[in-house]
Amino acid sequence: MTAGWSWYVIALVTLNIVGCVWLLWWTARRRPGDPKPEDTSHVWDGDLTEYNKPLPRWWINMFYLTIVFAIGYLVWYPGFGNFAGVGKWTSQVEHDRDAARATATLEKTFAPYQGQPIDVLARNPQAVKLGSSIFGNTCATCHGSSGKGAIGYPDLTDDVWHWGGSPEQVLQSVLDGREGVMPPWGKILGGMAGADATDYVIAHVRALGDASGNARGDFAAARGKTLYEGVCVACHGVDGKGNQALGAPDLTDDYWMYGDSREALREGIANGHHGIMPAHRALLGETRARLAAAYVWSLSHSASGGKAE
Fold first, then answer.
1. Residue 236, marked binder
2. How many helices and strands in the chain, by DSSP H and E?
């Protein structure tokens, strides 16, 4: 807080306290010439009389004690501008103290699962339950409460893993995060084959996923194959199977994280994508990250370790 704002707060607080004291004193005193409580002359129906009685002295004194308490509060706690207070209390210290207590409690809960492989944890119902809770608090914002993902966020319930689906690879994704970059190729492809270059590449990519092979003789697909081999093959491979070391997706399956419409594919090729999976090592710690990874693993694997139906 700047010095100017500090003095503003000090003046405002002082004015309010002094104003409350003055108001109590001014309204509680009786002045010469004031009518007696029963002499207000406000009478209705012959026997209903309005009185002008002041508050009881004990009630007034309670207000004064409240003001004294407020002054003591401002002396002990910060609230008077930049004055830190005699007690040196801060919300940061309070937060750190509460967080330390909560962390100690959590460590006792998670201690039995420390260092266990996530495929082993995935077969432990209690570990999966804890992992589900961690997932809901930390990961569901992007991947959804069911892990089905959304446009731009991968589905965690299938068997498609752009960065690898082994237990160690899934754990590494949770702990250290991932960053997948699809460069924008629109201008480069346009310079190579004109305005239709992106559509040619899309035709070839469609042909890669065509098990019948009928689409590969198409002129657009054949033209796109040349362009694909010039700019795309380094990441996605000649056969379009991708590269998990780079996070480059398999283009021959039916899963498209950013959508499989022509417009979505054109946007991805022309302008690229930049996907970031944040690292959670510092946020969760290794044991909680393992439990979250175990829950994710369980979404696509049965309790026996095979693929989930």
1. yes
2. 13, 4
Residues 48-85 have pLDDT tens digits of 877 777 778 899 999 999 999 999 999 999 988 888 89
20 in a labelled binding site: no
- The per-residue pLDDT for 214 is 63
Confirm whether residue 143 is marked as ligand binding. yes
Q: In the Cβ-directed half-sphere of 30, how many Cα atoms lie within 13 Å?
A: 12
Domain ranges of the chain: 3-89, 118-177+278-300, 181-274
Note the pTM of the prediction, 2 decimals: 0.68
pLDDT tens string 161-212: 999 999 999 999 999 999 999 999 999 999 988 899 999 999 999 998 887 6
**Angle at CA of residue 295, ends 160 and 116, nearest 5°:** 110
Task: Please give the CATH superfamily to which domain 118-177+278-300 belongs.
Answer: Cytochrome c-like domain (1.10.760.10)
> Does 257 belong to an annotated binding site?
no
The domain 181-274 belongs to what CATH superfamily?
Answer: Cytochrome c-like domain (1.10.760.10)
